[in-house]
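Retry 2 of 3 after timeout on previous attempt. Resubmitting structure tokens to design endpoint.
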């Protein structure tokens, strides 16, 4: 017996209309995204006079130089938090930060980096240096307490931090000859209330900062910038594969006052590494900031975590209760044969002061006739 042919009912018609609306919404969203990307490319080409995209990696990073050199020096500049004020009286006397101190620390960072690489290595013959800009270069107004306590407006901080980054990069070029500058945005430079996944880069003031820096050095052949349209920068140094990301989007959370950020960073390294390998971008080492604590790469965790120019602050002391961390930035070397070798934190606050004897120790000495 032949089966009767079913006629589409009300439910099928409703489903069809729903699917049609969803397709139309997706097409409209895709058109807006394409327009947004076109605008970004247009800004680069027409306003800044640059190529539409900036993803090229210089040939001198390819590992063609000799094996008896220290390799390529690399440093991460991130979490400068320009404009934020940290009060010494609110951090147990451990740290103070403002725009004046920030400028002094940038000078110390550049001077010390050049000194360590040039005066403390055997045969310091380098093809150039990698200076990774890892985001949160300004602190922004993303929280009410920041907008109330910051020293200067966002635009003032952007102009001032650009001058200091440009000055530092010029010094690096004079010292090392060539400079490769991969750049990623952080979470503090955004102009939206909450972090976004779509158009994350183009809603950050730092994207404009990086493109402006690229334009500033566009006629200087010593420089090459990588300013990707995504939140991560992928590049190779001596065939060692790096992924630079700010660190706030590792896909993990947690951490506490005992182990600090080690847990989420270790889990995030594995998670990001697996995801990137699936799309043809395997990683040997991840570079990030965000956690404001210097952590060198190890076999247990293939990530170098940068310190912060800002250093220890009220939030870390009061809400996180994490151990004190000195203001620092990472310096390391990538060798053609041995990969990452020397790893140094560049401390920016001078030598820590020695602690005075506590009162109870003095009391016991007096009691015992000492």
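Retry 2 succeeded. Sequence:
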């Amino acid at each position: 017996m032949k089966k009767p042919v079913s006629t589409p009912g009300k439910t099928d018609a409703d489903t069809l209309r729903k699917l049609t609306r969803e397709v139309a919404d997706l097409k409209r969203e895709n058109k807006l995204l394409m327009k947004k990307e076109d605008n970004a490319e247009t800004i680069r080409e027409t306003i800044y006079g640059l190529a539409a995209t900036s993803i090229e990696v210089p040939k001198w990073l390819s590992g063609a130089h000799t094996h008896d050199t220290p390799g390529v020096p690399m440093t991460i500049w991130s979490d400068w938090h320009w404009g934020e004020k940290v009060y010494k009286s609110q951090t147990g006397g451990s740290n103070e930060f403002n725009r004046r101190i920030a400028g002094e620390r940038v000078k110390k960072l550049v001077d010390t980096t050049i000194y360590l690489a040039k005066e403390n290595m055997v045969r310091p013959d380098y093809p150039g240096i990698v200076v990774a800009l890892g985001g949160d270069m300004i602190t922004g107004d993303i929280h009410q307490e920041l907008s109330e306590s910051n020293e200067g407006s966002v635009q003032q901080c952007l102009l001032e931090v650009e001058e200091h980054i440009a000055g530092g990069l010029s010094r690096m070029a004079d010292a090392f000859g060539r400079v490769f500058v991969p750049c990623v945005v952080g979470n503090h430079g955004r102009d939206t209330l909450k972090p976004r996944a779509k158009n994350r880069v183009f809603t950050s003031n730092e994207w404009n900062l990086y493109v402006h820096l690229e334009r500033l050095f566009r006629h200087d052949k010593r420089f090459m910038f990588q300013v990707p349209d995504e939140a991560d920068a992928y590049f190779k140094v001596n065939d060692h594969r790096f992924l630079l990301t700010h660190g706030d989007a590792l896909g993990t959370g947690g951490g506490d006052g005992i182990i600090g950020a080690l847990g989420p960073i270790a889990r995030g390294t594995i998670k990001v590494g697996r995801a990137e390998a699936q799309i043809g971008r395997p990683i040997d080492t991840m570079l990030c900031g965000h956690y404001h604590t210097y952590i060198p790469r190890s076999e247990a965790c293939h990530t170098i975590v940068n310190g912060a120019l800002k250093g220890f602050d009220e939030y870390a002391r009061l809400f996180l209760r994490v151990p004190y961390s000195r203001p620092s930035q990472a310096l390391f070397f990538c060798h053609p044969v041995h990969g990452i070798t020397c790893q140094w934190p560049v401390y920016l606050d001078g030598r820590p002061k020695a602690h005075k004897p506590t009162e109870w120790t003095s009391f016991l000495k007096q009691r015992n006739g000492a």
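Attempt log closed. The mean pLDDT is 86.
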